Amino acid sequence: MAKSPEDVSSDVSARDGVGEPTREYPALPPSAEPPSAEPAPPPAGPEQPASRISGFARLLIFTFFVFALMVAACLGLRAVNVLPGFDNPFSDQTTDRSQPVLLQSMRDLSRYVAADGTFQVIVDLQENKENIPDFLVNRRTLFVGSGTVEQYVEFGSLSDKALQIDNDKNTVTITLPPPQQGTANLDLQKSYVVAEERGLLNRFGDAFKSDPGKQQQVYALAQQRITEAARASGLDERAKQNTESMLESLFTRLGYSTVTVTFGSP
Fold first, then answer.
1. I need a labelling partner for 248 at 20 to 30 A (CA). Which of 52, 68, 208, 234 fits?
2. Running DSSP on this structure, what letter comes out for residue 5?
3. SS3 state at 11
């Protein structure tokens, strides 16, 4: 019996397994939709973060520009003395609480300062303890001292015979005591401490108490060295020459032709 075309098509479909669902993948329900090849676009949400960041950056740039413009305007007005100056609120302040000066003594001087000399000495003073390492107990000070020493002639102790005048010969003879040397006077503006070394125990002790006598000891040693150096410098001979020149000029202007100046023995 011959089959109709519909029956032939149905047989072919049954043989090829098209019309029947497979065992591995069950058939989709009629209401299910086939999956789409492209994903659905995300739902519309609030404004993106990039736009917020860009808006904040613009606000920050505008604020900085306004601040820089204000600073420049203030500096310009201050440069032309339109705005008053402002002091530093954290500047250093020095308060002088010194007491009034007390006059201790006053004396009359009759000396003639004939010469002076300026000397400089380097004092290297070290104090340590025997049998103790220097890093524990040690104090070493390197000090540069600058001082001036005066050489003078004392006129207050002259006797009546010190001045001999011969009006006939128009001569003058003056006998003076030898020049004397004063104590060295340190110039604190030119004197300074170069270096100072202290042991651990010395540093620990200085943290609780100070000893101004140590600094005074360095000053006294510098004065002593300068005074000794002035004695060997020939400053006394220079003082004699200057004193003779001063007296000769003085009495020559008074009309005396010969002026003789002698110095006593020291």
1. 234
2. H
3. helix
Which tokens go with 147?
């001082």
Alpha-carbon distance of 181 to 238, in angstroms, equals 12
Rounded Cα–Cα distance for residues 260 and 214 (Å): 50
Measured CA distances, 150 to 13, 114, 203 (Å): 139, 8, 39
- Give the CB-side neighbour count of residue 263, counting CA atoms within 13 A: 18
- CA 147, CA 186: separation in Å to the nearest integer? 4
Cα-based angle 6, 10, 12 (whole degrees, multiple of 5): 120
Give mean pLDDT in consecutive 10-residue pieces for the chain, a chain of 266 residues. 49 48 52 51 52 72 86 76 61 84 86 93 80 68 92 89 88 92 91 78 58 77 93 92 93 90 85
Whether this prediction's pTM lies above 0.70 is answered by no
Residue 14 has a pLDDT of: 46
Which residue, among 149, 112, 176, 124, has the nearest Cα to 233 in the 3D structure? 149
pLDDT tens digits along 56-89: 788 888 888 888 888 888 777 777 666 565 566 6
Rounded alpha-carbon distances, angstroms, from residue 113 to 180, 230, 242: 9, 15, 9
**Which residues have CB under 8 Å from 17's CB, separation 6+?**
none
**110's tokens:** 């009759």
Given the structure tokens 């939709």, which residue do they identify? 33
Please compute Rg for the chain using Cα positions: 54
Tokens of residue 144, six digits: 């540069």
Write down the H helix ranges in 130-211: 200-206
Cα 151 to chain centroid distance, Å, stands at 38
